[in-house]
Design a protein that fits this description.
Structural class: mainly beta
Protein name: Fimbrial protein
Number of helices: 0
Keywords: Signal
Organism: Salmonella enterica subsp. salamae serovar 42:f,g,t:--
Signal peptide: 1-25
Oligomer: single chain
Shape: elongated
Order of helices and strands: EEEEEEEEEEEEEEEEEE
Length: 192
Amino acid sequence: MKIAAVLRSLAAVTVLSLFSHSVFASDGCQIISGTQQVDYGRFIRDDMRSGKTDVDGIAYQWLAAQTRTFDVTVLCDESQKIRLFIDGPARKNTVFRFGQNGAINLKVKNGRMDDRSVQLATGARGATLTQGADSQTVKPGFGIAPFDGQVLTGRQFVVTVEVTTYLSQKAFQARDNAQIEEILNLNFEAQP
């Protein structure tokens, strides 16, 4: 996923490109993204949602772009335990970075394994997953797996990914145009 932006004092243009490949994938599996690019068009500060978030006792002011969604599917020839990963630059290992003055929040929902609705579990690479929910926020270095009391096996795992880009007020203080690019990669692990 590649994110690029041109910033001006009142507006920004953002394009998000998706890159997918497999990591530790068994033969006979592939990953498919429902889109290769999410185009935010022009950011206009007055059109963005503003808010305040408290993280570890520090208050952050932000502007949020409209949330965009796309589906990701992992297909395998045989039944596998599948874990999806979204990798990229992070801020304090809690959110994905978007340039010097922003962050990207990724949320997954609508989990399906072999056309059956499932909960989603998240955890660090190699961690045992113990709890599922209908939706999960993806942290850098964490994977998402289909879950129903335990990690499930199947041939087709599908999730909807929601992407929300946040910018600080500082992002709109540039006098000249500036380009911001971030790359996020879609990966998966599959085991029999």
